[in-house]
Amino acid sequence: MSADFETRCAALLASLGLCAPSEVTSVERLTGGVASDIAAVSFRGRIVCVKFALSKLNVAEDWFAPAHRGQAEYAWLKFAGTTVPGAAPALFGWSKADNGFAMEYLSDDVYLWKAALLTGNPDRGEAPKVADILGRIHAASTAAGFDAVPFKTTEDFDALRLDPYLRFTAGRHPLLADTLLAMADGIRAMRRVLVHGDVSPKNILIRSGAPVILDAECATMGDPAFDVAFCLNHLMLKSFHLPAQTAALRGAVARFWQTYARHAVWEPVFELEARVAALLPALMLARVDGKSPVEYLGAATRERVRSAAVPLIARPAATLGGLLDRMT
Question: Could you tell me the pTM of the whole model?
Answer without folding.
Answer: 0.93
